[in-house]
């Protein structure tokens, strides 16, 4: 298990640094857009709540709790916007940001573990530059490929059932990883064909979509969010790949 | 089956076999972390990692 220990060290170093970096980037790129979109989401929820409470306000004197519970029930009836009533969520401000930092660090280490595992599976020497290429491939497989079918969404966007979208996401990412591996490492034309097929098939199958999906936020915000997510993700994967290649060379396989 | 084939770049089949288990563990741990942060249906996990899920374009809500 000597190799396992080395892989963990390399991934922890690369993932924590890239995660810390991207959490700063998220605070200026995506999080402000999420907060803006939530204003529209809450306004839409409140409008729906007011519409339904006009018939029920006479039954209770506690207007605020009635509004909250009817908001939850009206949202639960909208596909893709199921919020559980009374579940814990971090308080806005420090607590919410602290959990965002934690989640970014864990995601960074998680993706770094996948990268160094792929390096070890592939074998051979690595350095920061080959790591950068792997990172860019990670961006294609984990952001671009699933994003073509399921574009980044701000809060308040209706979407197909969560589990169906998650299954399609995992299936598409796995196929893209396999497809890129076939393209880059397959030595025969047939492998390249198989690689292209793996990249294309999930999009022929198609991501789960609603017939009439609506977003509470205006289009300018949803567009701004897509640009912010894609650029941030590119920067994250470039950093993660470079760092993973560097720490793999340092801890796992010295050149 | 104990013959060790050596590839052009110095890799051997035996080294592939000895790598398999630790590499699989590391990859599994990575997938576990990503699923915990980005895909768990536990509401508290979703709410805690909410902004990161959206920022990484993981399917959310």
Description:
The complex is a heterodimer of chains A (255) and B (61). Chain A is an all-alpha fold and 255 residues long. Chain A is 75% helix and 0% strand. Chain A has a domain at 2-49 and 96-159 and 210-252. Mean pLDDT of chain A is 89; it is low at 57-82. By secondary structure, chain B is mainly alpha-helical. In chain B, 62% of the residues lie in helices and 0% in strands. Chain B has helices at residues 13-38, 43-48, 50-55. The mean pLDDT of chain B is 83. Chains A and B meet through helix 1, helix 4, helix 5, helix 6 and helix 8 of A and helix 1, helix 2 and helix 3 of B. Chain B: It comes from Hypericibacter terrae. Chain B: This is Cobalt transporter. Chain B: Keywords: Membrane, Transmembrane, Transmembrane helix. Chain B: The chain crosses the membrane at residues 20-39.
Order of helices and strands of chain B: HHH
- Biggest interface found: A-B, 62 and 40 residues
| Low-confidence segments of chain A | 57-82
Kindly state the mean pLDDT of chain A as a whole number?
A: 89
Mean pLDDT over the full residue set of chain B? 83
Name the structural class of chain B: mainly alpha
* Tally of DSSP helical segments of chain B: 3
Span from first to last CA of chain A?
21 Å
The total count of helices of chain A amounts to 8
Q: How many domains of chain B?
A: 1
Quaternary form: heterodimer
Protein name (chain B): Cobalt transporter
Transmembrane segments (chain B): 20-39
Organism (chain B): Hypericibacter terrae
Keywords (chain B): Membrane, Transmembrane, Transmembrane helix
